[in-house]
Predict the structure.
Amino acid sequence: MTRREYRKKKAGKEKKWFQKKTALKVFGGFFALMAACTVLSRAAASVLVAQVEVENPTGGTVTSTFEGQGEVVPSDEKQVFLWAEQQVEKSAAPGTAVKKGDCLVQFRMEYLEKSIDKKNSEIDQLKLQLEQQEVAARGSSYVSSADSAARTLDLAKAQLDAASEKADQAQAAFDSYAGESEEGENEEERQALEEALQAAQSERDAAAQAVDEAQNAYEDAAAQDAAQEANNASAMESARLAGEEIQVQIDDAQKELDVLEKYQAAEGRLCAEEDCVVLENSVADGTVTTGAEVIVTGSGEWLLRGSLDEDSRKRIREGGKASVSMDSGERALDVEIRSVDTGEGSGNTGGNNAAESKGSESGNSSTGNSGSSGSGTGGGSAGFAGVWYAPVPEGTEVSYGDTFTWKVQVPSEQNYDCKIPLTALREDSQGNYCLIVSEESSALGTVQKAERVPVTVLEKNSEEAAVDSVLEKTDQVIVGSEKYVEEGDQIRIKG
């Protein structure tokens, strides 16, 4: 091989090596650029694409938590109404333990005796008024005007009969003489008979007029007598009714007197009907009662009484458990709810709260005191809607009126196939829905996006919601995100 050929061959090798080296550099630069673009793309995705937290749907019950307030009460509360119109000398203060038959209120005997004297005097006055009305009810005697007018009428009729008879006789005498005598004979006798006839007829007419006048006078007198009799009957009836009214007043006053004398026999003491504790006393010593004052007593065991609102009263049942924390600072204790009272006859009260009336001496009825209303964690209407009762835990020291807070967890009666966290539940104009993670293929590979799934809420609490939907147990439901995510947005799962 010549030197020239050797140099040519060597130059060819060097040229191929240079081309190969250049190609390697080009390919290396391309892959470096692609790596840099991938890094930049992922960096941009980490800034623009939202990271989300996901959970799978579950099944089971939905537990609702209800909270509220309450107070300590005795199992039996009674209201004892004080005697009316009596002066209180002393009374049992709230918190006082009273044995059966012991004095709750002592009234002043001097004031009571004055009341009895006053009531006796009132009854005596009423009895005098009754006697007066009884006399008036018998009516008053009077002389009948019609009797006198009747006698005058009878006399006038008798005089008319006599005058008529006399006129008839004069007429007969005149007619007889005129028929027997001849014209011109004894004119004087004829004239005398005629004058006698005229006089008799005049007397008869006057007697007839007198009868008419007597008849009118009689009728007027009879009408006056009838009016007088009607007035007397009305006055007698009025007096009778007034007497009956006074008798009612006497009976009422006598009943009041009997009560006062009963107070007197009890030496002015209003006593307890059973062993009890005075819970409330609205009367002050030295005051005169109106009958509206009341002393509230309690007997039996101490109970916890929790107040219910509209939501909790529908869910809390007898036999459920309640966590109770006394406001005095004791640790929370679990108690079993003994009874629930919603005021609708659907539950038994914790004690004897039936109203009971015992006249003016004393009356017993439930006081109906209640604590503040509780509320479920899901919200709802506020306001008192009922109470529940539970025994005070053994060893817990309490007194009347002590307050506490309570919490009750109630599982749903139904087992649900699908539950999602409440943070996953969304709502817009189309209704309730949630977002799940779905995957799509793209030029850059598989990407994750948010997909909308409609749901119907069946029940929920503060943490989760039972829903009816097409969700599968394997679906990844979006429960949280570092930024707001909408349907169709690209996302990536945090992890």
